[in-house]
Amino acid sequence: MARTGTEELRRRNRAALVEQLHRHGPQTRAELTEALGLNRSTIGALAADLAETGHLHETTGRSTGSAGRPSTLVECVPKAATVTAVEIRVDRVRFALVGLGGEVLERAEAELDGADPVDAIEVVTGGAARDALEAVAAVPGLVDAGVVAHSTELGWAGRDLAADLAAATGRAWQVVDTATAAAVGEWSRGDAHESTKLLYLHGGRGLTAGLVVDGRAQRGGSIQLGHIVVQPGGHECGCGLRGCLEAEMEVFGYAEDIEYATLAAGMGDAAARDGLRRSGEDLGRALGAVVTATGPDEILFGGWLRELYLSTAAPVRSALAETTLPHLRSRLRLRTPVLGDEGALIGAAETGFAAVIDGMR
Amino acid sequence: MARTGTEELRRRNRAALVEQLHRHGPQTRAELTEALGLNRSTIGALAADLAETGHLHETTGRSTGSAGRPSTLVECVPKAATVTAVEIRVDRVRFALVGLGGEVLERAEAELDGADPVDAIEVVTGGAARDALEAVAAVPGLVDAGVVAHSTELGWAGRDLAADLAAATGRAWQVVDTATAAAVGEWSRGDAHESTKLLYLHGGRGLTAGLVVDGRAQRGGSIQLGHIVVQPGGHECGCGLRGCLEAEMEVFGYAEDIEYATLAAGMGDAAARDGLRRSGEDLGRALGAVVTATGPDEILFGGWLRELYLSTAAPVRSALAETTLPHLRSRLRLRTPVLGDEGALIGAAETGFAAVIDGMR
DNA sequence: ATCATATGTTGCAGTCAACAACAAATCTTG
DNA sequence: CAAGATTTGTTGTTGACTGCAACATATGAT
Fold it and tell me: DSSP 3-state helix, strand, coil percentages of chain B (rounded to 5)?
């Protein structure tokens, strides 16, 4: 495999073509010519290459209504390159086999009932992981080079998950954190494609955040939002620190608790309303520090933070306004994700495809 | 200028050769062959190209002591490509004309005495900026696309510095923030080349920080460290917020004040010692939030923070330890910069060279 | 039905990097 | 000190790739 020379040029162009189709869906050869800035003949040669290897499928053009010869439609063949995506939660493991172009080919889910998620992987994936080009697992926590350094949610510290998964399935795995995966998912298949610096907040048993710049996860872009210290010397946290956001937030738990609290607050329960407000303020203050440090242009509230934000956006916004400079605030959009529960799984798959396409270059 | 094709391949390789020499200094053709993974004949052709355009100079090989024909030494011609670097401070403007390879060809400095720094630019640079391929100005503050959105130090808000400099000098300028520039400088010409995620803290009249990942400045990587809120509802800050680090730190000012305080503390002044300690704690807490949000592997204390850190590292470290997860802390090195006062100027020049080399591709 | 328009196809030319054979310059060894 | 070993620069050749232009093809407009 030459690292230089004209063959690399070909590989780069081939990869660019596959990436274009994977990201933007089926396109005509004419559109591809425009998008990649290559000659018609070059596109033709590349497409012929990739059709032969089975990655692409060409359909004879149907009339577009305008004059001229109709252009051939090119589309990905999903089964030609697949990625295994797994999302690990406290109580369950979810799996999807995703094909080139983003189509979900298989899907499964299993309750854990206290079992170790790694032990459930083979059953959930049904061996499908073996044929996939990449396998990616999303876990809520601080991930560094395949190792889960810290996870409030799973209660892990320093677990080499990549190695464990490899041992259990006989293949290499990539490990990413849930929030970063979800950020990638929302950017690539959601509604956040315009964002150049996207911050995704994930509320599970712990609070994590993920930063995606220009659609790509950063080296170590996994942020332990729940362990931003908002109250120095405050309540003791499970991580050993004091005054972490997770330890200080009054409303804390799963989405069901949030729903109960919002319901109670809506029915005039003053204590519930105050609790929600103070939680929103704590979150806003922690966010202020993260925004000052990272300067995102969009924040998405995922997991149960979605419910918190929808029910109590005002205190979040005002606490944020009190802790960030006007310029950082003014270009900031606050929203909720559009992929719902699927974001992390889809993002994990997209992380895998990024590796697949990089590997083609 | 074609964006694809075999000519681009040549351009990329040419740029890679120049980058290699610029960053690692003079090298033999044999070393270049190894470093770039290209064939001997290709290196020869590229070097011949660049020698003809005047970018490179080849010296007939001198014996290395080992067997074989001595390899030709290739080095940059500094004057072949120059970058104008300017550092703007409250009280003065500093200028350097830097040549390819990193050699400083000219240097000048001017006190401002209250004048607008832009008005002093033409005099300080002596018109040298005109011939340079790139011109870069470093300013302490929050910079976004040529605009200084906020600068405690200069008292600017929303000033389009790139446009002002262009109007004053008749050429395009790039604007970066001082801390990020210094981070780039320390990474490329200092002692922080091993760091993959380098956080540089700059103490001037305001406190700013810059993040450099794999040697490159991030989009909007300029961090207003001084406006991390460490005391919600605390003292009013000039930026309009309350409880900013800048407003809360007891020892705050120029390096001279720090020196005075450390001197007093050393002579047993309990008040000075307490003030230093509390300032170190405040700084450590703000840093904790930034570290949790960005996950650097190295932190450099620049400007007068250097003095503060050297005299009172313990409270900074312990406050940091109380506000960051063990895993983030364990891989973190705290140090002081090696380029001293020059970091930002050198880094601004390197930012310019990055653009020059990117432009060759 | 003919022309205009847009696109796929084919053959050709220009460029590039790798390769191999050769030349050059140094060290090593007898 | 001379011949061989070793390393590197040089040159001519080769295979590959992309762009270009001319031609073929398929549709809409007149």
Answer: 45, 25, 30
